[in-house]
Amino acid sequence: MRDNFLWGGATAANQCEGAWDRDGRGPSLVDMIPHGPNRLPIMLGQMDYRSLPQDSYFPAREAIGFYDHYQEDIALFAEMGFKAYRFSISWSRIFPTGEEKEPNEAGLAFYEKLIDQLLAHQIEPIVTICHFDLPLSLIERYGSWRSRHLIDCYLRYCETLFRRFKGKVRYWITFNEINMLLHLPFMGAGLLFEEGENPLQVKYQAAHHELVASSLATKLAHEIDSENQVGCMLAAGSVYPYSCKPEDVFEALQKDRESYFFTDIQVRGAYPSYAKKFFEKEGVELAMEVNDEAILRDYTVDFISLSYYNSRCVSTEAHEEGGGNVFASAKNPYLTYSQWGWPLDPLGFRTTLNALYDRYQKPLFVVENGLGVRDQLEEDGSIQDDDRIAYLESHIAAMLAAIEEDGVDILGYTAWGCIDLISATSGEMSKRYGFIHVDKDDTGQGSLKRSRKKSFDWYKDFLKKMSI
């Protein structure tokens, strides 16, 4: 293991900050994703947020009030012994419409205070530039990432961040879970589909623009500060064939490639041959400019960051479905399942880490891993979250085995939702991940009071042992 291995936790602006209309922040796509039955159709881009009922509840608008509580929360992270904190910046807090010539100083000042607070506690900031977060104006005016115009808007935003936080932030992630664009197009990339459109054409054209933007951002980051390290980010998880039937094995290969498509380009620098054949078959014709292939080739990322929650299982035949929410999966009879139907598979984590490192031979960074459960508040106010502790213990052990026994190079590990926040997929508060409990329910009621769970002390003790 690296001597400077970065242990810590992770959140995202759209799931924790709130303050959606304060200090000059403009509306963002996440502010338009409701709680309840309309959430999934909105995230899929199948329903227009402008047609939502007026009484819809939008949980991201207040979230857990991190905007006002960040000092208290960072002090708790420091108490646990964090060496790193991965968070995202809200694009519309810096450029309210995405097209301003000058950034919103109040937004920059907030993040500067946040970063300075982290550094004062010797916590390394890991910044995600775009985490399911996009100024709403860019969706309404240009159709989001289907338009090449967004590359320029994104690079103006990136340059502002790289210059303002030069010397304070070294680790940058260009897009969170970039492959989620294929599965939740509106949440992942602000895509709404019009009648008669070929959704595959729209999604892969948007993906191309994001991939070019990511490469140009990597170039820019290195030019502004040679110390900058820039990573891509993948929603990862090995795909198992349901059986050794050759058709199942090939189906698993194809599903893996669906996600590897993005990292193959961001790490290897070119569209893979299987993707080109897929485009031919599906009638996808990407609009590219003459220098795009050179840009992708010349400005690859420094590291690969990933989220891992569970593995998947696929078959060419019908089987009982398992969990995973976003990724369709057959139920794996060899695994147990969480309260939300997600398979629990620590060995799958080790397998995933090995597969990624074998494929790319670049450092990995685990920036999301955790278990969403319903916590039980005891009469004395304590939360005995043993299921969460067991999940994290087993998965961290699997990661350490990948490092120590398999030789996988990993930069760090930041547990997802180190403080309770809004679930990205379900919009619920009751699907809790944190070491820190936040008093708030699924309808938005609660005091936002913070309190330590049993896992808080467990992680604190664990990090203390790892620092010896």
Automatic annotation (TrEMBL):
<dbReference type="Pfam" id="PF00232">
    <property type="entry name" value="Glyco_hydro_1"/>
</dbReference>
<dbReference type="GO" id="GO:0016052">
    <property type="term" value="P:carbohydrate catabolic process"/>
</dbReference>
<dbReference type="InterPro" id="IPR001360">
    <property type="entry name" value="Glyco_hydro_1"/>
</dbReference>
<comment type="similarity">
    <text>Belongs to the glycosyl hydrolase 1 family.</text>
</comment>
<protein>
    <submittedName>
        <fullName>Aryl-phospho-beta-D-glucosidase BglH</fullName>
        <ecNumber>3.2.1.86</ecNumber>
    </submittedName>
</protein>
<dbReference type="GO" id="GO:0008706">
    <property type="term" value="F:6-phospho-beta-glucosidase activity"/>
</dbReference>
<dbReference type="InterPro" id="IPR033132">
    <property type="entry name" value="GH_1_N_CS"/>
</dbReference>
<dbReference type="InterPro" id="IPR017853">
    <property type="entry name" value="GH"/>
</dbReference>
<dbReference type="InterPro" id="IPR018120">
    <property type="entry name" value="Glyco_hydro_1_AS"/>
</dbReference>
<dbReference type="GO" id="GO:0005829">
    <property type="term" value="C:cytosol"/>
</dbReference>
<feature type="active site" description="Nucleophile">
    <location>
        <position position="368"/>
    </location>
</feature>
<keyword id="KW-0326">Glycosidase</keyword>
<keyword id="KW-0378">Hydrolase</keyword>
